[in-house]
Amino acid sequence: MTRTKVLLVDDEVEFASALAERLQMRNYEVRTASNGLEAMALFHEMPPDVVLLDLKIPGMDGLEILSNIKKFDPTIEVLMLTGHGDVSSVQKGMQSGALEYMMKPIDIDELTSKIDKARKKKERG
Amino acid sequence: MHSNDRHEQELRLLQLHFIGKILAGFTHEAKNYLAIINESVGLMGDMVQMGKSSEKDLSEYLQIIRSVEDQIKKANEQFRALNRFAHRMDTELSSFNLNESIFELIALLTRLANQKKITLIKNFQEDLPSLYSNPSLIQFLVFSVLDEGLLKLEKDSRITIETAGVDQAVQIKIIPEGNVLEQESDVPSVPHEIVEMAIKQLHGNIVREGGGETLIVLPLTAS
Questions:
Q1: pLDDT of A85 higher than 70
Q2: Whose CA is closest to A51, among A36, B41, A60?
């Protein structure tokens, strides 16, 4: 099985780089973006299996990125990450096709289990 | 119910809404700091488990430790701002430094502004005289004007908050700069009649000038 390609979108650069390194140590292929435009550019350059998306990205809202991703390829699974207790944004994300959401701070084992589950779901189509 | 009583009740409800907004922003910010610390510490744990101990690895450990220290420092500043903000409500009237009270409000609103890609700029007169007034009502008043700007302005805009002393009063000038959103809401988050009521309680004056600038004038003593 090839390595799972993960696109991590979060404006907290230190959070994203530490999490990316931890995922790489667990054999995931990870690329990071800190804003919507960068995320969409990386997305088109190397379509990922799974996207980890912070809901609150300055400039382009996480929900807008989610909608763009789903328009491009509805089979790509998106896991939302949020530090915000804003239930309405989470509900909107789920309605827009996100697979699941996780509240920050996250547990790495729980996250990798959700990424694996998301990839399997994508492969089943 | 008299119109004044209704407005008074609405003012209290909007003040609660304001406190809720501040707390939501604060907890979001705090969770982000914790998330960064959690990942940084987790990464160090992973590196230790993998037996990483070369000189390059040691330098990475130090870098991670510095990042954790930085997050703790930033979180501490936010906690201090929230603590001072909460204590502003201890007594209705007190003697205080206006710059400090606006500084902590801006610190607590920065994430909300960043989210909208709007920069809040402080331009305070350093030797401003102390006020004897209602600090939490003044913070609410300033928030009301700032929130209106945050709702109206497009991303990459800025809002400057100036303070200055004039005669037996201080003034706060709020200057929005940037393009106004096309789908601008006509309804401000805090209705103008409530803002007028708050300024009346503070024995001050508010002037909305052309170009979206707002000037708030407050007497040194509100009683």
A1: no
A2: A36
The residue among B27, B32, B71 with the most chain A CBs within 10 A of its CB, best to mutate, is B32
DSSP category for residue A9: E
pTM: 0.87
Of B37, B43, B115, the CB nearest to A21: B43
Instruction: Give me the DSSP letters along A94-125.
Output: HHTT--EEEESS--HHHHHHHHHHHHHHHHH-
Whether the complex's predicted ipTM surpasses the cut of 0.90 = no
Q: Per the omega criterion (within 30 degrees of 0), is the bond before B135 cis?
A: no
CATH 3.30.565.10 fits B95-219, yes or no: yes
Indicate if the pLDDT at residue B68 is higher than 60. yes
Q: What is the pLDDT of residues B140-195, one digit of tens each?
A: 999 999 999 998 898 889 999 999 999 899 999 999 999 888 775 656 788 889 99
Q: Which CATH number fits domain A5-119: 3.40.50.300, 2.130.10.10, 3.30.1360.200, 3.40.50.2300?
A: 3.40.50.2300
| Cβ–Cβ gap A22/B46 under 8 Å | yes
Domain boundaries, chain A: 5-119
Give A-chain residues touching B39 at CB under 8 angstroms: 14-15, 18-19, 22, 105
